[in-house]
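Researcher: I'd like a candidate sequence for this fold, 644 residues long. If you have to choose between options at a position, lean toward the conservative one.
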């Protein structure tokens, strides 16, 4: 699409001035911002930024949850030809140093006191930060910091500037072209410093429109924006497609109210990474365990029917009259109320992406009538590469290449992509750009996979993570980890095995789910570390691992990847401790090095191992957690031979 984000916003304001553009829940009440209101706000913010000295090509950092005035700030920045750089709001201040210095950022628009404190803390390492504007004034009344002001003050200054410079806003808007840089997204940095992925208005809007056309999205969709705006997935669904389609984006009051807000809004178009769907399923499982015997019996009987019949019904495949009747009754008494409880009653299309989703988890949602589909993409591809068409949804693929996309496989099995949505470059990193972009326009995804007979792409794992066991059989750690995480009692897993004689794993229990399980059995515990080490909990996890092994034994290629031994870690893997990225992807090499003593215990035949680990708390304090961890042996199964 040959346009820009601010121009699209103004087109909606002209065509549908009183239609809702954004909603925000404030003190329990939904407040609506119309397209006309948004256009007025953007104009004032752009004037304020221009008055402060923001020029074409400058970078401006935006940090916070999804908030209408932060969205408007992105539009205002783009209207001036400057570049918004969203960063993760839950990151510690030190994580901002590299992006801010790398992008030479002098201006920051943030949500609240927490983010102001981080920016102030950074000024010694990032002295170029001259101005900081905040949206939420709570707790900031007594601050006396140079260059600190509210967004309200920025708006007032902008109105005055706009009145004194008639036509300047429109001239800046006209000067901004589709091929100009629209935004920069920093990668999660699993193997070093994050890289700034540079995207233009054209690349982001081209992919937003490709997704729009694929699923026939309209201005009537309702979306809940609850994921970090710094994640390109959230940005595409709640910003790029919002402007491409003109639908309504709803901003929750806080992270704690997301489930309530989800039910109130009833989105028609929904997007979440697998960890969100895992968490929702865990909450359902906990509630059913607490339910009475009759309800539990009805739920399990209905789910047996759903798993057998539900996906077929959703895909339009014919089923027998009796099965259709059973499913209809299940929908009346179980699936419908369950969808309503989850907030998915009106969902027409739901997507998951970011990492692979376990097939069992994926099938659960489709079996209860939620049109959950998978997509494939990355920050560098502006998300949309492959999508699953309705009625062609498979649990083990990520869909077909969509409009404008070509895919080919390298000799190594790596997936290469050519698309109009590819990044322009990695900012100030030509060497890294040359590594991923070929001279003839192919992007190296770093993922290993293949196209099946029906043209659907199947992802095996990250190419660098796919390995071989000592006997030569394939080892795909992410595949194993996803199977483990399907169980509501397992929150995270890290599998080891490359060039080793067997597969071993670290496991994080889900504290809420296992805590609920323990309380119903009158099993006392004094926090995560104590609960994780209980013999009963180790047996619970062993049962989950053995079920995964039995499943792996059904696949001749992966039967050798059954988990032989595991350790339940004494602490949860945490991004603040460097063990995960902000999008909750495990840093496998870092974890291997940090917990080398535990890896040695797994492969050295030991039955237990003492460890003490430094941890960082949310308020910045540090401490340590220590425990003697049991090494648990697990039953494995012979591979099932398939008939030729």
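Model: Candidate sequence:
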């Amino acid at each position: 699409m040959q346009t820009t984000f601010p121009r699209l916003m103004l087109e909606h304001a002209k065509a549908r001035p009183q239609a809702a553009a954004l909603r925000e829940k404030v003190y329990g009440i939904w407040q609506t911002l119309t397209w006309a209101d948004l256009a007025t706000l953007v104009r004032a913010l752009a004037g304020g930024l221009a008055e402060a000295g923001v020029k074409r090509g400058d970078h401006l950092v935006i940090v916070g949850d999804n908030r209408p005035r932060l969205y408007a700030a992105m539009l205002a920045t783009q209207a001036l030809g400057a570049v918004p750089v969203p960063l993760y709001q839950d990151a510690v201040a030190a994580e901002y140093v590299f992006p801010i210095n790398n992008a030479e950022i002098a201006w920051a628009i943030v949500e609240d006191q927490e983010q102001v404190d981080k920016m102030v803390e950074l000024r010694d390492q990032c002295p170029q930060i001259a101005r900081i504007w905040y949206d939420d004034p709570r707790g900031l009344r007594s601050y006396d910091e140079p260059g600190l002001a509210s967004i309200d003050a920025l708006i007032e200054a902008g109105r005055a500037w706009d009145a004194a410079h008639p036509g300047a806003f429109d001239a800046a808007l006209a000067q901004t072209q589709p091929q100009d840089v629209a935004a920069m997204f920093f990668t999660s940095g699993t193997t070093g410093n994050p890289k700034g992925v540079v995207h233009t208005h054209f690349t982001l809007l081209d992919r937003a429109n490709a997704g729009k056309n694929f699923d026939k999205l309209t201005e009537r969709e309702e979306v809940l924006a609850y994921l970090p705006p710094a994640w390109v997935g959230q940005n595409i669904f709640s910003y790029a497609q919002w402007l491409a389609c003109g639908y309504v984006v709803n901003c929750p009051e806080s992270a704690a109210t997301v489930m309530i807000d989800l039910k109130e809004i009833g989105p028609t178009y929904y997007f979440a990474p697998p960890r969100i769907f895992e968490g929702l399923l865990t909450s359902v499982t906990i509630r059913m365990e607490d339910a009475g015997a009759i309800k539990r019996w009805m739920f399990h009987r209905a789910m047996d029917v759903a798993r057998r019949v539900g996906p077929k019904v959703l895909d339009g495949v014919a089923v027998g009259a009796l099965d259709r009747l059973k499913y209809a009754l299940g929908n009346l008494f179980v699936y419908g109320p369950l969808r309503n409880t989850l907030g998915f009653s009106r969902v027409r299309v739901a997507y998951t992406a970011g990492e692979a989703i376990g097939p069992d988890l994926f099938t659960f949602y489709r079996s209860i009538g939620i049109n959950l589909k998978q997509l494939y993409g990355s920050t560098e591809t502006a998300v949309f590469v492959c999508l699953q068409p309705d009625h062609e949804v498979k649990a083990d693929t990520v869909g077909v290449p969509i409009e404008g996309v070509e895919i080919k496989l390298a000799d190594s099995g790596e997936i290469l992509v050519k698309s109009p949505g590819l990044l322009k470059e990695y900012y100030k990193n030509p060497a890294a750009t040359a590594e991923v972009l070929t001279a003839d326009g192919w992007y190296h995804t770093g993922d290993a996979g293949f196209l099946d007979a029906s043209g659907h792409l199947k992802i095996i794992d990250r190419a660098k993570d796919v390995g071989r066991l000592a006997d030569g059989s394939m080892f795909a750690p992410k595949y194993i980890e996803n199977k483990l995480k399907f169980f509501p009692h397992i929150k995270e897993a890290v599998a080891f095995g490359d060039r080793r004689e067997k597969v071993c794993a670290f496991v994080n229990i889900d504290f809420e789910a296992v805590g609920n399980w323990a309380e119903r059995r009158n099993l006392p515990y004094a926090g995560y570390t104590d609960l994780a080490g209980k013999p009963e909990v180790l047996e619970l996890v062993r049962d989950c691992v053995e079920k995964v092994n039995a499943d792996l034994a059904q696949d001749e290629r992966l039967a050798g990847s059954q988990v032989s031994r595991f350790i339940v870690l004494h602490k949860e893997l945490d991004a603040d401790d460097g063990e995960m990225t902000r999008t909750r992807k495990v840093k496998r090499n870092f974890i291997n090095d940090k917990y080398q003593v535990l890896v040695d215990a797994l492969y050295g035949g030991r039955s237990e191992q003492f460890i003490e680990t430094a941890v960082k708390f949310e308020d910045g304090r540090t401490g340590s957690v220590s425990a003697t961890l049991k090494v648990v042996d697990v039953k494995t199964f012979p591979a099932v031979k398939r008939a030729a």
